[in-house]
Amino acid sequence: SNKEMNEHYTVSFLGNVVGGQDISYANVEINIMKRMAAKSIKAGEAVWFGCDVGKMFHRDLGVMDMSLYDYELLFGTDFKMDKKAKLEYGDSVMTHAMLLTAVDMKGGQSLKWRIENSWGNKGGDKGYMLMTDNWFDEYTYEVVVDKKYLPQKVLGIFELDPVSLNPWDPMGSLAR
């Protein structure tokens, strides 16, 4: 599934209200997503996000980090696949949604994020998790922020006619 950057997308038959507003996405660079999320958090507004929570995640500790497990050392092979390939070949898909509630920044760059999960107080710090910035890069697929936090470029993407993706496309996996 070829999803071009800076395009507007929707997923056929996605939604739960007949005649309701279609779900739509702007496919933007991950750094733009992070800047929008950080702006929202700094303004006191948590950010809903969709991710593949099962990857490089220690549930008891509540840590999501790309260096958590060294699978390459264990298996003696390279597991490098970019995000696009992970989606195309089913290695990764959005499996869970949570809230970004805080961000640790240094010099304008996000370093780590505090997550509020919906699984109760078990795991992490009473249900709060820590996600490193590199984990965000690899396994966060969507964020929902108020449009007042979107740069003009992203607002313009939503003015384009959306490309309709097939109902089985990974972009619709959280809404099923």
Element-level helix/strand string: EEHEEEHHEEEHEHE
- Enumerate the strands of the largest sheet in spatial order, edge to edge or round the barrel: 4-5-8-7-6-3-9
Quick check: average pLDDT?
93
Could you estimate the helical fraction of the residues in percent?
10-25%
What is the overall silhouette? globular
Largest sheet: 7 strands, mixed
Rg measurement, Å: 17 Å
Count of separate DSSP helical elements? 5
Number of strands: 10
Structural class: alpha+beta
User: Which runs of at least 5 residues are low in confidence (pLDDT < 50)?
Assistant: none
Quaternary structure of the protein: single chain
Strand content: 25-35%
Distance between the termini: 19 Å
GO cellular component, one term: cytoplasm
GO molecular function: cysteine-type aminopeptidase activity
Keywords: Hydrolase, Protease, Thiol protease
Organism: marine metagenome
Please give a structural write-up.
There is one protein chain. The mean pLDDT is 93. The chain contains five helices and ten strands. The longest helix has 13 residues, at 30-42. A hairpin with a 2-residue loop joins β6 and β7. It has helices at 30-42, 71-75, 83-88, 133-139, 152-157; strands at residues 7-11, 25-27, 47-51, 57-58, 63-64, 96-106, 109-116, 128-132, 140-144, 163-165. It starts with 6 loop residues before the first strand and ends in an 11-residue tail after the last strand. The protein is globular, with a radius of gyration of 17 Å. It is α+β, with helices and mostly antiparallel strands and 176 residues long. It has a domain at 30-150. A seven-stranded mixed sheet has the order 4-5-8-7-6-3-9. Strands 2-1-10 form a three-stranded mixed sheet, with no helix packed on it. 25% of the residues are buried. Helix content is 21%, strand content 28%.
